[in-house]
Protein: RNA polymerase sigma factor sigW
Organism: Modestobacter italicus
Amino acid sequence: MPVDLFEQARAGDHEAFAAVVAPYLRELQVHCYRMLGSRQDAEDALQEALLSAWTGLGSFEGRSSVRTWLYRVVTNRCLNQLRSAARRPVAAEQLPVAPPEPSRWGEVPWLQPYPDVLLDGLADAAPGPEARYESRETVTLAFVTAVQLLPPNQRAVLLLRDVLGYRAAETAELLGLTTDAVTSALKRARATMATASSAGRPAPPAGGPVERALVDRFVTAFTGEDVDALVALMTDDVWVRMPPLPFEYRGTEAVHRFFSAIDGHRRAIARMVPVRANGQPALGEYVRDPVTGVLHVVGVLVLALDGDRIGELVHFESALAASLGLPRTLG
């Protein structure tokens, strides 16, 4: 970055400041999303953090890179949001039928999908030497959901150390903690993640023939065949979730009961439009209006693939379809 551009920003040139931060905006927003689990909350946190960075630009002494300084500002903004417990209320649509007893009650009702189009180019931001996770893994819904179960400090430490690859001393400086506190928090966070995450088989290459074939088989079974055919595509320990509704189902028996209960609604789906979210295949669900014949979006499904099976299915409400580029209606 040209020194004169940064000095122009420090002198009050807002366009120069925008140019300084532009190369980092996408990765910073994804970092906020990992911290908060909601794209909407992530966007709000990033904007507030950029305002804080702009007003505090004079205090930047250049002892770290601009990127690291921005991560400090953004991470602390997310931590403030988490500690304030000021999340916006999450309204939930009702299921068309009474659901069966869930396997457990969901703990992350604010979870939202993240469009793949906003992940383009992130591979260029290579993680540091301490990173333990693959970039693709850290944007999956399963990973983001597991991170939400961590206390704020553990969450920040895990993401800075194991995802972004900052060293322990760097992470301590970013968060205003001691190195011992960072090491302790990371140990506890890793233990929680190991418990919350279930390691399955690698997903097939994104957009490749194996993935396309499995998604096509899923669409056929979901819209036209019996529940047995649908469940046969899933792993034995499959999860079905539907935030912000709290019902979660695990295993083929529980999932079979769930899909049997909503069989009429499932068969009403007239078209499923492919899209991508969180590095995973996703589908917009459309139902035909019996009077006008127009197709209306009624939800979004995001699939996690486990080898040649489906290991997780997450349903999101129709209000989030537009954020993935899905139209509200189809002719």
Notes: The domain at 209-330 is CATH 3.10.450.50 (Nuclear Transport Factor 2; Chain: A,). The chain has a mean pLDDT of 92.
